[in-house]
Write a structure and sequence with these properties.
Elements (H helix, E strand, L loop, with lengths): L57 H16 L4 H22 L11 E5 L5 H14 L8 E4 L1 H4 L7 H12 L3 E5 L14 H13 L6 E6 L1 H9 L2 H4 L4 E5 L4 H14 L3 E2 L1 H15 L6 H21 L7 H5 E2 L1 H5 L29
Parallel strand pairs: 1-4, 1-5, 2-3, 3-4, 6-7
Helix pairs in contact: 1-2, 1-3, 5-6, 9-11
Amino acid sequence: MSPEAPSGFQMHRPGTAPPPGGAAGGGRSDADKPASAAEVDAPTQLDPDAKVDLREDEAATRVREVLDKIDADLVGLASVKLRIREIASLLTVDRARAQFGLSSSKPSLHMSFTGGPGTGKTTVALRMAEILHALGYLRVPKVHAVTREDLVGQFIGHTAPKTKEAMAKAAGGVLFIDEAYYLHRPENERDYGQEAIEILLQEMESERGSLVVIFAGYEDRMEKFFSSNPGLSSRVAHHIQFQDYTKDELTEIAEALLTSDDYRFDDGAKEAFAEYLDRRLQMPRFANGRSVRNALERCRLRQADRLVSTDGPVTKDDLMTLTEADVRASRVFESEPEDDGPEASGGESSEPAEQSD
């Protein structure tokens, strides 16, 4: 290992106390402060003939726990899970190489998550932050999610403070920019989005290694966004595509959500919900897992109204069971939906944001 601290993304020891004069002695928390040489933990140096068991490494154990959590929490997404596992493996090996003083190129950890709404991008960003923190590449396992409105001002001199404030809130963790393509509006010469992009570029190029940026949005729009900003694209090492869920996967998501909340479908409701998905998948603005969750919320509302209107007591089974009627009361079952109102659109706006999954 070279005695010099590596440039680019550097390693921090998760869970270590702030250094003298750090959070305990200042107004800003450790998470809000930029990285400094004093905060970086140099990897333990090993003899050339030493051996490293990657499976027994404490950080690798924490990474496996996070990967297992991803498998448990997210249905499908096989290619996404594989890519996350590969990135985690690469960083684990880089960590072991550093212990032997082996040189390696600086890891570029900035990413692009593309795909439709409700496909798990935000959840994976959270897990990615946990992985990078476990391996020492982030000081804190947190994600600060923003949109254009959080970064771009409306007046001269307004954008830089907003962008830098967002970066300060994300310092030490992940800055997740949802619908990032809205930062670039070439049709408006007076738009300040380009100023925000240039400030982000400066941070991504810096040697401090205190921030990972994840750009997220629809795949086609993100391609245009990166095409118009080649400098930005070249600094994003990992482009990960999130596919829409299949009907079977959506059904599995629904069952998991119901189970976690102590609900269940009766046989009629299962058949009705399968038909609901067939119809809903053909409608505009379907938001994958998010639309499923919203649909179940409406089923719960109808069940509650049905039970409250019932004469006499109800049983535990009644309180847990969603019936066919609770599902089929949806407007999605209208033969000719007149519009794409809240019921059909999953309760979201015409441009559904992906703040959470």
